[in-house]
Amino acid sequence: MAEPEPIGPALTRATERLRAAGSPSARLDAEVLASHAVDRDRSWVLAHPEATLDAEAAARFVAAVERRAAGEPVAYIRGFKEWQSMRIRTDRRALVPRPETELLADAAVAEIERRLAASDATITAWEVATGSGAVAVFLARRFRTAVALGRVRLVASDISPDALELTAENLAEHGVSDTVSLACADLLEPAGRSLPRPDVVIANLPYVASDQVDARSGSLGHEPRVALDGGPDGLAVLRRLFGQLETRARPAATVLLEIGADQGPAVAALAPRGAEMAVVPDLAQLDRVVRIDLPD
Ligand code: GLN
């Protein structure tokens, strides 16, 4: 049996292994995976390079580093991602929530609040392609009381039954299962049931062009293609959503979309007739969220 190894040299070795495997964030990945293996936070790991890993922790660490070296996202290996200060469960059933999608969630909160202040009508907010359910959980926690009072209705849908299972697990983990109606649906067209038409549509659709999905390797190869692949120009799913809006969304609905940084002009050209569109840049000043207001 090998001598127990201190964390410091184990981290150095893991970093070298991950760098050689092509990870762009090898040292950080190694630190996060070490903290996962010893079940302590990263600052503890960094402050205790002399602490030894017992045999089980060492084996967990090596296994985690090998998974990462094979390109699996750190969030799948740990089983969760910190997002909007919440722990969102993550695995192969859905895309890992991205930091930039926090902007979409914030825009959705602002829009629902604006509508709550503007009228007494019940507001239906529907997140399509919810995936892990990160945005839906965020909205459910924020509007739990408004939902209980009947002021807000929340719907989350996905075309993938696997993803919806993960959504349900995340809602349950955050104690908001009763706050959100889940539906298996092709965007706003649920199979075999009717749901209220939305006043606010929230969507982080697959928007990467198929050939770019093919060209990507590493972490992205482990994420479900259906969550990323937006067809030849990345906009195929978005076109389908736009085609559903007239019959499926309420008049004067607001649609909030995450887009690729270079897709603003193309999305503007596709927007339904009579709609108004505005683009919200992300922290890197890239076009990231589009807001579309449908006509009355
Ligand atoms: N931003 C994601 C990526 O580039 C894409 C997410 C999506 O298609 N919705 O990996």
Name the features.
binds glutamine; two-stranded antiparallel ribbon; Rossmann fold; Helicase, Ruva Protein, domain 3; 11 helices; 18% strand; alpha/beta
What does this structure look like?
This protein folds into two domains: 5-70, Helicase, Ruva Protein, domain 3; 101-293, Vaccinia Virus protein VP39 (Rossmann fold, 3-Layer(aba) Sandwich). The longest helix is centred in the middle third of the chain and has 18 residues, at 101-118. The termini are far apart. Helix content is 42%, strand content 18%. With 296 residues, the chain is of the alpha/beta class. The chain has an eight-stranded mixed sheet, with helices on both faces. The protein has a two-stranded antiparallel sheet with strand order 1-2. It contains eleven helices and ten strands.
Please outline the helices and strands.
Layout: H1 7-20, H2 26-38, H3 42-47, H4 55-69, H5 74-78, E1 80-83, E2 86-89, H6 101-118, E3 123-128, H7 134-148, E4 152-158, H8 161-173, E5 180-186, E6 189-190, E7 200-203, H9 210-215, H10 236-248, E8 254-258, H11 264-270, E9 276-281, E10 287-293
Parallel strand pairs: 3-4, 3-7, 4-5, 7-8
Antiparallel strand pairs: 1-2, 5-6, 8-10, 9-10
Helix pairs in contact: 1-2, 1-4, 2-4, 6-7
Bound molecules: glutamine (GLN).
